[in-house]
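Model the whole thing, not chain by chain.
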Amino acid sequence: MTAAIPLLASLALGYLTLMTVLKGVNRLNGPLTLVLSAGLGIGLNAIITYYGFLLFGGFGRGMIAELTGGAVLVLVGINARTLAAQARNLKWRFSLWSIPAGILWGLALYVIVFMAYRHPYGEWDAWALYNMKMKFLIGSGEHWKDIFTRLHWYTQPDYPLLLPFINVHQFALSQTAQAVVPLITGVVFSMLIVWLLFGALRQVAPAYVAFFASFLLLVNPFYVFQGTSQYADTVLAFYLLASVVCLNLTALHRCRGMATVSGLVMGLMSFTKNEGLVMSILLTGSFGLYLLCRRVPAAQKKQDLLLIPCLLLGYAVTSSATVILKLFLAPANKDIFGGAAGAEMEYLNMNGLTITAQALGKELTHQRWALMWWFVLGLAVLANRRLFYKENKIYLGFFASYLGVLLVIYLTTVNFDLGWRLKSTLPRILFYLLPTVLFAVNWAIYRYRHQPPTEPLPAAQNEEQLDEEQVGPPDEAMIQEPQPEESRESVTR
Amino acid sequence: MLKKILTAENCALTASVILCAVTSFFLFANYMVKSRMRGIPVIEPGTQFVQFKPYLTDVRELGYLTNKDMSEEKNDGFFLQAQYMLAPTVLRLNDTDHKMLILDYSKPVYAWFTMKSMRAAPKYSSEYGPVLAEQTE
């Protein structure tokens, strides 16, 4: 029961941060606000714990509780008026649809918890890297920095530490046994990913559509297995999806507050894994390029360009943890671009490319995915040209560049057998990309369902007009609920 | 009429519902298989080293000596399991410059030979094979 305390503290911190950044004009729908708050809060608390370790020299329950409580109290003070107003106007909307949805989610949660208890210590990398580091952070006192200098390189001492610090925070504020903490984190993030997907799609699609699109993940046996494996990939999958959703909304509504939230989330992603760091840089680049290339009138271009510093501000706040870790604490990575140090790269040739392509094809069609990637392909075909429309270009650019980076990393493998590396990493890469890919194809289908771009674009004027009509005042245009057919049509037209 | 029904959105929704139903069946089958294994205990990684813990309460680092295949492809022998179980004590792989040593050899005779050559005395010998030893000099 006490396991709920740190989660509630995280929810409060995340919600208050959202309110502070969005300046009280948050009009995201309820599920999206809740899930973003929870994810943001859990990550921020982990970062606070990390800074606590740096400042106070190691683990301390009291220190972590005081820092968490202090952060929440400061934000309550800043948002006191808005909170009071919200409490007065609190409305509870109930729809009949929420009953079967709640029952199905409850059943899925039971199954996930059951499956999690069938491998309570997680899978190999989970206990060998992340859970071991959590034990180390809790038990090593002032010598916690030995993680970077004294542990063997098999324990990946250069890896960012968001997941171990999430677990340390969870452990510090609850009476939960050490071994159970990572299990809870795995289950919580597995559910948060599904609810985030639901909340994000709910903005443009009816509830039942968003429900089925997201519930697909929860009933996929391999998703359940990976989600409960206690890997950092589950956390990464959440922050990747959250980053894409936030960037999408930022581009759509030119909302500066949302740009800052996107930056905060991407900074958390960079502290999750090395892949997260790469993905956050690529997403920022893809987003910046999209804004620069978007053909809009000069006044809107100015608004567009103002989004970039807001995003970078948020990114700087949370990615500062990664920067400190990478520059001052962690050793260099030995696995990636190892060849740069002069080692012979035996896979940087046609043979390496063939092995990689075959492994990818085999993995995508593997039965453990239960037809999921065929389904994604089918949706992509249905979405057709809508996939390449407007803000969808952000994540298309991201996916293309990230796949390119992955290819380079595989081809420059030096410390392992490439076949073994592909076999042990590809399922996990596809796992953390899957929720975002599902979001991308579903968003493309439902967002522009009434007005797909039937005409080619040569008329720059036409494009300008589209953008002008689509955009409202920057902070007020956030979609709250799926609008009635006519108004949605007017938004997209 | 058909064009109105066969929209991308309707097709996507239908496919989602069908796939949900199919994968629910897979998940249920998976659940049934796992629930039959309910009575089988799950062993914590590194259990073969758990008995060394009481002897290492104040030990910050120790040497882990082994002749097993330490490649990542072969799952690092048992090194990472030992590191997980004994954290926050740092295990230094094949490093003999420590007073406390864990000897994890493929045959007991190798462990005893190593102890003899290093003038180390066994502190605890696990029934799973590894030996915790202390260098006397």
